[in-house]
Every structure is written in structure tokens, then in C-alpha cells.
Sequence to fold (245 residues):
Amino acid sequence: MALLKVLLLLGLGVSVNSGVSLKKRIIGGQNCQDTERLYHVRLESSNGTQMRRCGGSLIQPKWILTAAYCYNSEPGWTNTAFLKVHPRTVIQYHQVIRDAPLIYHPDHDIILLKLHTPVPDVPLVRLPDCRYRLKRNDLVKLAGEGATTTGPNNQRLPFIALPAQLQCVDMIVAQVSGFIPKYGHVFYASAQNKDICYGDTGGAVLNYNMIYGVISHGGSDACQRPVAIMDVCEYKEWIRRRTGI
Fold:
């Protein structure tokens, strides 16, 4: 129980000091292979002067699974889904998500976005087999298009130019599913000198090529705390009911 409390505090942004200086990818990852993550979606919210970037996953030709943080419903903001962003050798296209059905799970950081036009020619990511629940020390695979380097004192950099390739990173489950008010059901993953950055939120967390998690949040400093990940098994029946998968 004490370990769970510590990890919850870490995931919510309590700072832990470290002298490590990082100049690496995703942070600490590598280019994703061209044959994987074809379902990855780039989500951008903009009001003309500000922009927020996230990841997401096609779980059905019309449905994107991502973090609730990644959709901005405030007046004046436009939300756009960019499809076929990986690999970079294919032709990307986008759909503006305007007045489309949005399904939030109440008070939880997970959302379903419905596209106006289905995407029939992109391989979909599979929902998890929840007969097997993740355990501590299980390997999970994260991906995103956030910054690949850190700033002074290991601070996460704000939105900058996209990396040349979608970035992948392997991490280890540090703590199994717990509940955080206003976030929902989460588990934590970490690896030495590896982390997410702004722009990676909403991306898929895989185990055996199934989406067991959705990246939720980290802290302001890189590699100081485990990454909080929405536990898709806790939402699988909700997803099925809402999408008909």
C-alpha cells in the first residue's frame, strides 16, 4: 500500500530530484518500425494562436481511442485527426472533428472520438484480452510524436517540430491498476532514462500487440516518475457498448 501511495504521488507530479541529463528520443526510445503502429493517429487542437498535440489509436474504422485531455471543446478551438501519420512514406490525410459524436467516460481521462468518414484501409489495433491482466514487471510498448530531447534540468519541452519518425519505447509495468479521482483507472510504467513528453499523451500502450493502455500523463520533469496509463481493461466493456466492436 505504501508503494502504491508513492507511485500515485509520483504520477500526479510530485518532483523527485535527479542529476541525470538526457538528450534522447521519445525520451529514450527509437524509430518505430514501418510495419507497426499503422493505426496511430495524430490529434491536434488549435485556436489559431495555441496548439495542443496528442496521439490516438484507430480501434474501429470510425472510432479513435485517446485521452480526454486530447480534445478541446472550448469555443474557438478546432480539433483535427491526422490519419496515416506512420510510416512517413504514406500519404497523410486529415479529418476535422467538428460536431462529431464524442463519448467521455465521466470524470475519467479517456474518450472515444467518432470520425465522420470511416478509414477502411488502415489496420486496427486490437482491444486487450483481459483474461490476462498486466502484472508488475510485464513489458509494455509506448509510442508518440512528442519532443525527443529534454530542456534544462530535465524539463519536458513544449510542443516543437515533429520528430522525423514516430518514436517507440519499451517500459516495464511498475504498478498495476489503481484508481485516481478525476483521472480514473491507471497503471504505471517506467524504464531508466526513458519517458514520455508533451504530445505523447493519448498514444497506445501495447502488450502482445494489443492496446492495454492509453498514455495519460507524466510530470514536468523527465524520467523522475513512472508514466500514468489509463487501464483499457477497466474500460473494455464501456468501449464495446459505445462502439459496437
